[in-house]
Amino acid sequence: MRRLGSRLRRPTTPALLAGAALWLWAAYALWHTTASVPKGPPLSPHRFFSDSFLDSSASYERFLVIDGLLAIVALLVVLALYARRGHRLMRESAAGRVGTGMLLGMLGFGVVWFAELPFGLAAVWWQRDHGVSHQGYLEWIIEHFLGLGGTFLFVAAALAIAMGLAGPLRRWWWVAAAPIFVGLALLFTLVSPYLVPKTSPLHEPRLAEARALERKEGVEGTKFVVEDVHRFTTAPNAEATGLGPTRTVVLWNTLLGDDFSRAEVRAVLGHEIAHIAHKDPLKLAGWLALFLIPATALVELLTRRRGGLRRPEAVPLALLVLIVLQLLATPMFNLVTRRAEASADWSSLQATHEPRAARAMFRRLSTTSHGSPDPPGWTQLLYGSHPTIMQRIEMTYAWEREQRP
Amino acid sequence: MEVKARPVRLTIADDLQRGRGSVFFRLWFAIPFLFWLALWGIAAFFVAIANWFATLFKGTSPQSLHGFLARFVRFAVHTYAYLYLAAEPLPGFGGRPGYPIDVEIDPPVRQNRWKVGFRLVLVVPALILLNAFIGTGGGFSGASEARTGRIGLLFAAALLGWFFALARARAPRGLRDLVAYGLSYAAQTWAYLLMLTDRYPSADPLTAIGPLPVRDDPVRLESSDDLRRNRLTVFFRLLLAIPHLIWLTLWSIVAFFAAIGNWFAILFTGTAPAGLHRFLASYVRYQLHVGAYVYLVGNPFPGFTGERGSYPIELSIAERAAQNRWTVGFRIILALPALLLGAAYGSLLLAVAVLGWFASLFTGTMPLGLRNAGALGLRYSAQLYSYLLLVTEAYPYGGPNVAPPPLTANSAFALPPRGI
Fold first, then answer.
1. DSSP state of B73
2. Phi-psi bin for A316: left (phi > 0), alpha (psi -120 to 50), beta?
């Protein structure tokens, strides 16, 4: 009986294999909910961009990539040190097990904020130097410091759930915690449109164009808003956010100046509406679930030496484990988002039938944000959440090719 | 002992008796003294510059300049003590000793030249704290404070004291002591600014005005805080408190409805139901813990349950007792004066938090005076909420006080005076 009990408590190899197979099947199914997009003919970036721009954008991006990599190294070093010594901060808490864990979690991110501060400032300096950002250094520091409050709240809530469940469920807290986290992520996606600051409604005639594109892409009831970002950047951007009744397309007001033609803005609108039509925010939650289930299980496994997440002293190590897993999963997430972005580009073309405008928009996206249109493959693997500008331009040619009789 | 050791000491020989006529016309009677104080202030400004140079070169304030400025400080204290109803008789115009609220200032001694040289910079934190004491209606008052609705402790105490004295022909001890405490700090700050001493002003209410009343209030503050502060948690203090502030907000909503239930229950039965009393007492205690953490009066991250004995800045709340139904019925109206004073204490707490943040970040220690000033504000706030939520019928005590010694020895209390 004792042996049987211990077997039941310990996950056996078949159970692990079954879990892995289930995971792979779910990932495969989720992957195929997004249609693949034909690749265009390989083109030289010199056809679309001047030599000087290609040189300067490559140099601009190289600095940011190196700065980002150094920030990651600093993050890992600091978190490793924190994982070793962070438990000493337990004496700064008069709260119980869960409260102390929350404190250690928040302080871990506080320490990370300090470690990443110089790299963030270097990035701001570089962006200001290239005219991409207008934000002052102090303003940036204050904004990031206040933003840390949101991180603290998120970490505290996550730890309260995980450690709260680890009390009664012991080693199996993650089985209950992962679905709760996914539920919270969905809730966050649902309310996220209300968290975008400084927005105003999109006005005519662009609103009418947006509604027309909506009809073509088979969705309706999307809210269109404009976010004022002039204060800190000149770079253009847009996003699709929200779920169901809250789904919203947010356009940065940098898109609506004289730099972008109406046809180019239509291309952006078509792209963002496509995200909504494809239910990409919901699919992202699905990918998050696929990440969180094994990640939380690994956190439990790797913190077991310190008593598991039931004990606050395990929290600094749990942070390290989670951040390392997140870094390792980033290329996979980038693969997923690149596919979704390519699919949205394609749908936008299907709705607008304006490949020239799309090409002009991609070109301008690159020049205004000073981003390299054709970055090295390894940076694309690590940082590329979207296809490269050249891949997107090539795709417009693929679309034209498909339209020919 | 420490009161004597300070070079600038406030003494009190006031018997709390007030004449109604003198109280009613207090502001008008004070006008000549305020006018004279303003004139004297102009002279003191130039003398202070001369004193600064002299002290910088000689290392000691010259006797004549020191005497003139000491009399100016004394006269300022007399005038404000009169204006704010901390004393009854009209003060003299010469700033001579003998007024019921008086200041003793030690003769000139050698001062650190560095501290003298940078005095105008060094005095800034003390002036910030002084502004919290004086605020609207005081010597440093300005339109900006009135616009933002900030109210100084002395003004609030004087305003409430005016009504009380008019009705009862005596000043309430708590409010009188609160004014005296503010004037003690003001005198120390002025003396420091005018180079009469290089001893930095202390905001400690326990040593500001001599012997304090021993009160056995049903809601008492107890401290076992050792003043040590962790710099990392101090730096992120406000952000770390966010989960607590959210939890406190949620708890406040429930406490609001619980208080309404408590109100009806006491009106009918005369006593709070045990469950509601316990719940609301825990809420008040939790509020104190969070306040102590946010305002740096305490160091560790507090728990989320308001459990007794879980925090170094702790609240002792007496068991439920029968309450007068009349005072329960009109509790909200009766609490209005206390709410006004509570708002004024809020200004003090804010100043304590800002100054304490810098001090703790640089030294790793919270200054004792600031900690105790903050604790006083928190104690008042806890008593106020206990009164408002019908946890007790004892009216909040406005001034500093000490609690009686415990019946059993408790070595955990590091500070000699327990309860503020």
1. H
2. alpha
Tell me how many degrees the CA angle A160-A161-A162 measures, rounded to the nearest 5.
95
Residues in chain A: 405
pTM: 0.86
- What distance in Å separates residue B245's CA from the closest CA in chain A? 11
Q: What is the ipTM metric for this complex?
A: 0.83
CA distances from B326 to A116, B263, B359 (A): 61, 11, 47
Cα B388 to its chain centre, rounded Å, is 21
Retrieve residue A353's tokens.
Answer: 């039938």
Q: Which two tokens stand for residue A99?
A: 């409260």
Most distant CA atoms of chain A, gap in Å = 77
* Tokens coding A173: 């807290």
User: Between A262-277 and A206-217, two packed helices, what is the crossing angle to 10 degrees?
Assistant: 40
- Helix residue spans in B270-367 (DSSP H): 274-294, 325-329, 331-334, 336-363
Q: Mean pLDDT, to the nearest integer, of A276-295?
A: 90
Residue in chain B lying closest to A146 (CA): B239
Can you read off the two tokens belonging to residue B1? 């002992």
Mean pLDDT computed over A122-135 = 87
CA A242/CA A265 separation, integer angstroms: 21
Mutate to test the interface with A, among B228, B235, B240 (most CBs of A within 10 A): B240
Query: Looking at chain B, which residue has its C-alpha nearest residue A155?
Result: B243
Q: With a cut of 80, say whether residue B224 has pLDDT above it.
A: yes
Confidence of residue A6 (pLDDT cuts 50, 70, 90): low
* Tens digit of each residue's pLDDT (9 = 90 or more) over B350-376: 999 999 999 999 999 999 999 999 999
| A62-112 per-position pLDDT tens digit | 999 999 999 999 999 999 999 999 999 999 999 989 999 999 999 999 999
Calpha distance B20→B4 (Å, rounded): 35
- Mean residue pLDDT of chain B comes to 89
**Which element (helix H / strand E) includes A325?**
helix A315-352
Q: Is the pLDDT of residue B409 over 50?
A: no
Read off the pLDDT band of B413 (50, 70, 90).
very low
- Kindly state the helix (H) or strand (E) to which residue A313 belongs, with its residue range: none
Tell if the CB–CB gap between B310 and A94 is shorter than 8 Å: yes
| Model confidence pLDDT, tens digit, residues A345-372 | 999 999 999 999 999 989 988 888 888 8
Concatenating the DSSP letter of every residue in B59-70 gives: SB--HHHHHHHH
Q: Beta strand pairing status for A223-227 and A248-252? A: parallel
Q: Which residues of A touch B299 (CB under 8 A)?
A: 92
Interior CA angle at B155 toward B167 and B82, to 5°?
A: 70
Q: How many CB atoms within 10 Å of residue A189?
A: 20
Q: B23 near B30, Cβ under 8 Å?
A: no
Neighbours of A396 (CB within 10 A): 24
Which of B297, B322, B326, B339 is CA-nearest to residue B392? B322
